[in-house]
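The passage that follows is intended for readers who have already worked through the single-chain material. We present the inputs for a multi-component assembly, then the predicted structure in tokenized form, and finally a short commentary. You are encouraged to pause after the input and sketch how you expect the pieces to fit together before reading on.
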Amino acid sequence: MNNDLILLGHGSGGKLSHQLLDDLIIAKLSRTPVRGQNDAALVELAGAKLAFTTDSYVVDPIFFPGGNIGDLAVNGTVNDLAMMGACPRFLSVGLILEEGFSKAELAAILDSMAAAAESAGVSIVTGDTKVVPKGKGDRIFINTSGIGVIEHTLTIDGASAQPGDQVLVNGSIGDHGIAVLSAREGLEIDSGIVTDSAALNGLVQELLALGESLHVLRDPTRGGVATTLKEIAAQSEVNIVLDEESLPINLGVKGVCSILGLDPLYVANEGKLLAIVAPERAGEALEIMRRHPLGKDAAVIGEVTGTADGRVQMRTSVGGLRGVEMLAGEQLPRIC
Amino acid sequence: MNRKRASIEIEGIVQGVGFRPFVYRLAGRFGLSGWVRNTGRGVQIEAEGGGEELDAFCQALKNEAPPLAVISAFRVVPAIPQGGTGFTIEQSAKVKSGGQVSPDCEVCDDCLAEMSDPANRRYRYPFINCTNCGPRYSIITGIPYDRPATTMASFPMCPECLAEYHDPMNRRFHAQPNACPVCGPQLSLCDAAGTPVAGDPLDETLAALAAGKIVAVKGVGGYHLAVDALNEEAVARLRQRKKRDEKPFALLATDLDAVRRLVHCSELEGRLLTGVERPIVLMRKLEGNPVSPQVAPRNGWFGIMLPGNPLQHLLIQGCAGPLVMTSGNLSDEPIAHLDQDALERLASIADLFLTHNREIHTRTDDSVLRLSLGEPLFFRRSRGYVPRSVMLQQAEANVLAVGAELKGTICLTRDGRGYLSQHIGDLKNASTLQSLEETVAHLGRLLEVTPEVVVHDLHPDYLSTGFAEKLDLPRLGVQHHHAHLASCMAENHLEGELIGVILDGTGYGEDGAIWGGEFLLGGYESFERRGHFKYLRLPGGDAAVKEPFRMALSTLYDCFGAGLFQKMPAHLPELSAMERSLFLKMLERGINSPLTSSCGRLFDAVAALVGVRNRISYEGQAAIELEAQAEGGRAVWSYPFLVSDAPCHQVDFAPMIAALVADVAAGLDRSELARAFHRTVAEAVVEVCSRIRRESCRDRVVLSGGVFQNRLLTEETATLLNQAGFTTYCHRLVPPNDGGIALGQAAIAARRWRPDPPEAA
Ligand SMILES: [Fe+3]
Ligand SMILES: [Mg+2]
Ligand SMILES: [Zn+2]
Ligand SMILES: [Zn+2]
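Having made your guess, compare it with the prediction:
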């Protein structure tokens, strides 16, 4: 393998992505020391505390069960802001279109962007459109940037997990990745797996009621729950133990994953958040989630154990402990 | 008396195989004085005594050499008698103290005699030992090897033991673990809750075993689980409590006579069993043996060991028949060796714990081997053999090699020797990774080596690779099958360029595919891939390793395309319409189905196709059971295959699969099919090697990779290669599987690594 070239794996969200980020991108671009890597940057502007983020969407296919690249682009950026506990307000939209792309499909995508923005309560206020020659792009790429306001004074940060904390997820994992995969590969699955793509800012606003007990919020997108927890464990210098049997996984996803040999723990989500909460209020956090329409299947899936070297392990159904590692490259290519 | 003296030089594989202790014992037997030492080329002996005795000694050196030794040259030169008494093992000047740490050694006959003498103060004392025997590697905490640097440090010797220890004429002179019932470690027995059981621990244990109870027994390198092997119900309970495991259990038998009531045991197998290393030896079951079929289901072999430590002697002497002695762990976990950990992890399996207060510092599993081509073939090289070293030519650099992932071992080099560690286990397990870190530190301390470079596999997701990346050392990545090749070269002391036939499970290839049916041309420095089994899809990645029927589907797809399901033999699992469509899509589009040339996966596919097994519960199970089937077959025919042209010869087994599937449908006996398949693979190997020989003029072949644990395939392949005029080399000192990878990595790095030249002053 050639070490001088960008590999597909550099975009997987796994180990290679982190290396690229640390060794090249942050090293070249960041003039301020980076404290951890969170979903959005915290900035202060004219006395206001803001969260600021950007994300590009290159999903293939652009239409898939339950959604398309448009609502994904809105929800994804809204969620990155929400994971800082911010109230998302304004989005920009950058479109890169390939010559020959269908206007009808573009219209459908824009419609779902508008609808997603409306339901998340954000305004799309600026944008840009470029067209590249046929073959120089793949139909449509979308970039969205977002600004949100931070009204709380909490430190919600990937580095804030503490021993004893409980790890919660607001529902079933792996739906998005499998929905996209089955659309892309034309899998004939009759189990009705659809993307979980959704804006989580409403749910987050309610979780803020946990106050100081809410330590970490993260959306397990690329790389899935496994990769996100590895990041948190490393940032917080703690160990995390997951309980295999408590992971909420839809039967359909479980079935497809077992045939395909995929581990749902590494499959992408677009409407899920991981919340790491002080143990005394974990029960309350679970109740808040379960009361919310996006948290009906919420579950406590693990626990932060002693401070150490960022190890994540899973207690398997036969009672053993299996190490959960960050993959070097991708398990699934280009899913979000 | 007519005294004579001889200087004897022996070359070959005579270091790291227990040769010097063997010479020492032999000299004792013939009443000779003199010394033995390692040299750069082998072993040098000076021996003096009666002329007849000296002749007999030379004969015995050749005839009774340790089974792992290979003598390539034997020279005797008369010398001038010098008188003197006693025979000594001299330290080679070059080797520093740490290199002298010995493996754990079976209890010697002298100690055994004392232990069974009611008048002796160590009567029935399970921790008896002397300078010639006892625990070593497992109890050493540091160097120099002195009592304070062992786990015996907490047992101050009583005056009697101390007197022995200081008496140069005593067998226990400077025996670091020396102990007796007054001052040494003690046995204790408790139940699964940790509550002590009243009565004599040994007697109570024997009574419990007789009653069908499962007892966790603390041994030299870790805990074993013991149960009466004749008690079917008790063995079944152990199997059920160890969970979803069909892996064969090892047996402990009283003596060779007892062994011969269970299995076919040749003279050489007998020598391996009675060697000081006390390995588990796999031998073919005797028809109508009394052991519970639950011990090794669907397997033609029993793994048997003889008692190695005093406690095992006491246990087996008190039992009516053989005992199951399996490693104390849940499936896939490392063997328990610390008391509290054992109690926690084994509480759900064992009824009782027979333990003691001498700590095990380094976990060492039992070594496992069997005979192939009349020579030992390791499955696992651990207790008894570690830390013996392998001589590496031209190895100047101090290298740390971290191995692969399954069957993890590490290797350190020093003074031109490679020290391969004990079996560490499957690194997917978090506690095993920790054990790897500890082994690196501990072995480095014992050998007084600070590595200059760390060498690892190319697989980016191996935990051993991740470990290497975290060290603050220059790194060298070595391709998995190149390491296999170098491992076999190193232990056979081969140089130059040759052909490596590496038949293996999975290894990360330079092109990102999963390799495993490889024909390499090269040596330590470099290699070219001159041939491989044709790539097939591995549908579901790791899932296909656990479910061999997936590989069967892949081979069928390769033959019949979308029509594969019509050709599916009836014993493959029934698939729903959705499953069929998913599997077809995976194969057509390569969804989570990497390309592989693995020979292990070809065995899996055929095992499923002929109806041996669709899913496995332990690594390699399908291939092991396919070999067992083939052992029962007589077929002398083989199947067709295709080999593509140079530069890289691809072996296409599609014609074989098509014919095989037709034979299955025609109802042919699966033993015959399995046999013919083995022969086909062997013939394919010879065909490709012959082509490479024509192109390269190389006619030496090394056989390595996990598939060569298969005795039938190894023998067929080597025989056919030799008939075709090749010189064939197999593994005999380290396993052909990934347990030997670290040695190959080290041998390669020791050649390749050139530290940056020091900056000009
Ligand atoms: Fe291998
Ligand atoms: Mg993002
Ligand atoms: Zn002894
Ligand atoms: Zn004593």
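Commentary: The radius of gyration of chain A is 19 Å. Chain A touches chain B through 30 residues (CB under 8 Å). How closely did your sketch match?
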